[in-house]
C-alpha cells in the first residue's frame, strides 16, 4: 500500500482556513429597503402576525405586541440611509393594520370600535416599538452625520493652504 502524499498545507499548520482567506465574506451584508419597502414589510408581516395571533386559543393581543417589537427593529436596521425618517411613521400604521384581523364584532361599526379599543389597550407595545425604531433611526442618523463631518474635516486638512 502506498502512503498518501502530504498536502501542501501540511507543513503550515494545515487545519481550517479563516473565512476571509477562503474567499468567503466575513460579514453578511444587511438588506437595504426603501421607505416603501419598509412599509410593505410592515403591511405584510403585521396582518399575518395578527391573523396567526388570532388562531391562538384565547388570542392574547400581548403576543401580537411582543412580535411588533422585532418587526420595528428590523425595519429600522434594514432601511436605506435616505429613507430613515419613514420607519417611525410607517410602523404604527402597520401595527393598526395588523390589529384588523384581531378585531371582534359583526358589522363594520363593531369592528371599528374593536380596532379603537385594541389600539388603546395595546398602546404600550405600539409606543415601545415606535420608540425602538425611532432610537435606532436616530442613532444611525447621528452616525452618518459624524462620518460626514470626519470626511469633510479630513478633506480640509489635506488641502494646501
What is the domain total for the residues? 1
Shape: elongated
Distance between the termini: 76 Å
Element-by-element helix/strand order = HHHHH
Going by helix content, strand content and strand pairing, the class is: mainly alpha
Q: What summary fits the major beta sheet?
A: none
Q: How much helix is in the residues?
A: 55-70%
Question: What is the quaternary state of this protein?
Answer: single chain
Q: How large a portion of the residues is in β-strands, by DSSP E?
A: under 5%
- Number of continuous helical runs: 5
General description of the model:
- By secondary structure, the protein is mostly helical.
- The chain has one domain.
- It has five helices and no strands.
- Helix 1 runs antiparallel to helix 2.
- The radius of gyration is 25 Å and the shape is elongated.
Q: How would you describe this structure in keywords?
A:
161 residues, mainly alpha, 0% strand
Write the layout of secondary structure elements.
Blueprint: H1 35-55, H2 61-78, H3 87-99, H4 108-121, H5 123-158
Helix pairs in contact: 1-2, 1-3, 2-3, 2-5, 3-5
Task: Write a short abstract of this structure.
This protein is mostly helical. The longest helix is centred in the C-terminal third of the chain and has 36 residues, at 123-158. The chain starts with 34 loop residues before the first helix and ends with a helix.
